[in-house]
Design brief:
This protein is an alpha+beta fold and 256 residues long. The protein has a single domain, classed as 4-Layer Sandwich (Phosphatase 2c, domain 1), CATH 3.60.40.10. The chain has eight helices and eleven strands. Strands 2, 3, 4, 5, 8 and 9 form a six-stranded antiparallel β-sheet that branches. A five-stranded antiparallel β-sheet has the order 1-11-10-6-7. β6 and β7 form a beta hairpin. The protein is globular. The chain starts with 9 loop residues before the first strand and ends with a strand.
Length: 256
């Protein structure tokens, strides 16, 4: 970016129930037209995926998004994005646990991806297995690590406790080991150094209903367009796949 030139940010989103009976995804993008807030606090986006198979996943994902959005809106400025995002996520976790009550903790849950674009820098935090990816110069790069049991199985395989085949074939690989609603969070994935964004970059936050349906190559082809066309093409691509039992899917695309 040229010195003194402000980065222009664009944003678009896709959210659909897929072929499921209920929508358990939630999302939010801060007001991109509020230039004062944008300058003081940056652009904030969050995607949450209520965990299928557990009760009230939709309520938990909504609580996650509402809590984080309220924390962001309450701020007059952000001076330490890394610390602020971490504190907001911890407060959100407390709010979810309080909503669930002592008997409801671990009985329901949600993933969460949070992104903040602040003064040409990207900051993000993640819990669970939703993805945040950077698209730059035709290449799609996953930024966060999934918090599922597969990671622990792979570590056991590397240490020789189990075979690599057993690790890869385990039916428990996709089970989440860190999620909102579990009580004290086991893992929070985040960047602790500012990540500089370049003109032409795109950042996509998405639930597993997106990245398990479209390949990285298909997503990269979509993200080669502007954010609005990319959002339309992403949805069209998922429709075209016509996957049986298509999961809820949500994506937020940020462009700079």
């Amino acid at each position: 970016m040229e010195s003194g030139k402000k980065m222009r940010i664009t944003a678009a989103q896709v959210c659909d129930v897929g072929k499921r009976p209920t929508q358990e995804d939630s999302w939010c993008i801060s007001d991109i037209s509020d230039t004062e807030k944008l300058e003081a606090c940056g652009l904030f986006a969050v995607v949450a995926d209520g965990m299928g198979g557990l009760a009230s996943g939709d309520l938990v994902s909504a609580c996650v998004v509402n809590s984080l959005a309220a924390s962001f809106e309450a701020k007059e400025s952000i001076d330490s994005p890394v610390d602020d995002l971490y504190d907001m996520l911890q407060q959100c976790s407390s709010n979810v646990n309080e909503m669930l009550g002592p008997d409801g903790v671990k009985q329901s849950g949600s993933t969460v991806i949070v992104a903040l674009v602040h003064k040409d820098m990207l900051y993000w935090a993640a819990v669970g297995d939703s993805h945040i990816c950077l698209y730059r110069n035709g290449v799609l790069t996953l930024l966060n690590q999934e918090h599922n049991y597969g990671l622990e199985l792979d570590r056991c395989a590397v240490s020789g406790k189990i075979s690599f085949d057993d690790a890869q074939l385990s039916i428990h690989r996709k089970e989440l080991v860190s999620y909102m609603g579990m009580g004290e969070l086991k893992h929070i994935d985040r960047n602790i150094r500012p990540f500089p964004l370049h003109s032409g970059d795109k950042v996509i936050l998405m639930t597993d209903g997106v990245y398990t349906t479209l390949s990285d190559a298909e997503l990269a082809a979509v993200l080669n367009k502007n954010v609005y066309d990319a959002a339309e093409l992403l949805q069209a691509g998922i429709y075209e796949k016509d996957v049986a039992h298509q999961d809820n899917y949500t994506a937020i695309i940020l462009g700079v």
